[in-house]
Amino acid sequence: xxxxxxxxxxxxxxxxxxxxxxxxxxxxxxxxxxxxxxxxxxxxxxxxxxxxxxxxxxxxxxxxxxxxxxxxxxxxxxxxxxxxxxxxxxxxxxxxxxxxxxxxxxxxxxxxxxxxxxxxxxxxxxxxxxxxxxxxxxxxxxxxxxxxxxxxxxxxxxxxxxxxxxxxxxxxxxxxxxxxxxxxxxxxxxxxxxxxxxxxxxxxxxxxxxxxxxxxxxxxxxxxxxxxxxxxxxxxxxxxxxxxxxxxxxxxxxxxxxxxxxxxxxxxxxxxxxxxxxxxxxxxxxxxxxxxxxxxxxxxxxxxxxxxxxxxxxxxxxxxxxxxxxxxxxxxxxxxxxxxxxxxxxxxxxxxxxxxxxxxxxxxxxxxxxxxxxxxxxxxxxxxxxxxxxxxxxxxxxxxxxxxxxxxxxxxxxxxxxxxxxxxxxxxxxxxxxxxxxxxxxxxxxxxxxxxxxxxxxxxxxxxxxxxxxxxxxxxxxxxxxxxxxxxxxxxxxxxxxxxxxxxxxxxxxxxxxxxxxxxxxxxx
Length: 525
What we know:
0% helix; Jelly Rolls; seven-stranded antiparallel β-sheet
């Protein structure tokens, strides 16, 4: 069976694509760099992270952007031997005003090389491309910041000329939306003489939904399905997959159609989704009168779905431990907003170690020495072994669980004039900084030190100790559920990460060496 979610942990806004026997899904990455995650499958059951195409500053520079800006809802298509990836870089969204700049990059292969970006327009976010008979069309929603207007102004379309690298012709509104509101995330398909426009509505939280519309003409007008949303969990509060919406579809030869969609799994005790918005897959059918239906739960998101009749294609299991033996950062890790150069991150200055050179504070939206990976299960343990010789109270390095620069739990090694080298905990909840220990805990200045965190749904606990000795608990139990969209400030859309970081607020770039990092998932029961 296909077990949902298929892409666990912060993988929202899926754009699914088939090219021959290969299936790809592109998802949003927001302020995390490199931009856009692309997963790969050959059977729709087994998926692996393949690449992140926006991997250089000329394609994506998010320096200074607020949390949850950056890459929103990419769209992946293929036409005449070329892959197209369109994406929005949200620079600002304040009080309904959004600086939403849309671009397209292309590649001959899904693994690149991906081109420099071509600017499209800034009408709104969630761009998509539609290809037909050698012509290309850009769709997006249009933002509207005016008083007494919907901030979601409808779905627009404009022709794109790839050889000239520009859009051309009139901007045409093709769908205003239904009373659900918040109409976004357009994807366009053609089947049996109908153009089908699939949009997300209802907002990307617990009211989210998938609306299917159709027209005989590319430029509309588009008529919504009179039966209402094709997929939603808004009226099914007890379903394990909530927030169902923002979908795209794919045809599997000889096996019908499937829909990739966004979902969230709340922790029962708190109603918060620490794993962020994830991606699930549903089997869909077409009615005799040409409307899309999700089965078998009549418009609800199923946790198990019959797979297509494709040969099984599992991928090798991922390692629990990263030993940093390669000169390239392991694919599971990302950085914040920009790539980290050798003056901040090095895997070659001391082979076998990840060296981070201290940069800005954790509140910075500019230059952080931080690498992290997604939480992908509700229960896990993450650990690292650190060599670090701080000499100033503004030196820190260690293990962090974070949602954004205002929400984190940080177990760090630092320095105190009275204590010497020490361990302490620093937390921030919506920007409110706290040090929950009574005081720093002294540790020997010359020992390799292990830092560890265990997460069990909404319970987060730290431990620490020498490399060859037992680990000791440190600090209280923390509420892990605050690392979620639901708890953080309004307008946040990502998920929880765990990783490694180093700060030097003197500007001296005091470095920390991490020998290894482990991320071990446990059964969620």
